[in-house]
Known about the structure:
Layout: H1 10-29, H2 35-48, E1 56-60, H3 68-74, E2 81-86, H4 89-101, E3 107-111, E4 124-130, H5 139-148, E5 150-161, H6 172-179, H7 200-207, E6 211-221, H8 228-238, H9 240-247, H10 251-271, E7 276-285
Parallel strand pairs: 1-2, 1-4, 2-3, 4-5
Antiparallel strand pairs: 5-7, 6-7
Amino acid sequence: MSMSNPPRTQTDEEAQRERWSARAALWRERPPSRNVPSQITAELMLAALDPRPTMRVLDVACGMGEPAITIAAGIASVDGQVLATDLVEEMLAMARENAAQRELSNIAFQQANAEALPFPDATFDAVTCRHAVMLLPDAPQALREMRRVLVPGGRAVCLLAGPPEQSARERPLAVVRKYVSLPATPPGAPDRFRFSGPGELAEQLRRVGFREVSDVVHTIPVVWTGSVEERWATALRNSRRIAKAIATLPAEQQQALTNEVLEAFRDEEQRGSEATATVVLATGVK
């Protein structure tokens, strides 16, 4: 049985804008060092689109610009256009800068709420959304909006992280749980690993009316270009839930936890190419 979300309020949206504006400021200061996985997933999504030179593509919640930039380069044509949207202007500013570095002329940017897209029905040939569906407060409504703005026969391509146990990047969480109890995310609430289980994202697409739905799990390398200390600092900034839990510990336990996590990170680096994660790529047709 599907589970409906409670109505959103203006305060909800303001909280989301505040959260992602803060995240954009963090990424502006210290961009995520994940270029290799980011490019791989962008190329997977481009291939899943079955790209054509005259396509009109909408990228929802584009963040710093991917996969919109890779898709725009992949359909390089004056007739093919990509429109990248995000909830906050701060993200779009970084996306514009990254697109300008590629000297692309077939990509534009617009602020938009994924749950209330400001476009007429049947406007786009394809819609993409990467690493965002699971974080949207009303994910089913956002998927309905993506379907609405597609032309009949248009394709949606969504990608998100696979289960945490399949990600080398998440293994240090096992260390954290030895020291603190992390609060569980309420069922259906936004979470990094929401819809990451087998068939869950595909089922969400089916529930809102997509047909010819399929999902594929891909294994990609985990790459980190900063020091282990920088990686841990970034992880704490990106997860206030974990940072708050750790802050409740006595200083000596915080230091012991930090030392153990850093050692786990160093172990990952030594394993090199063995460090991987999975992503789920789901597609559906209107």
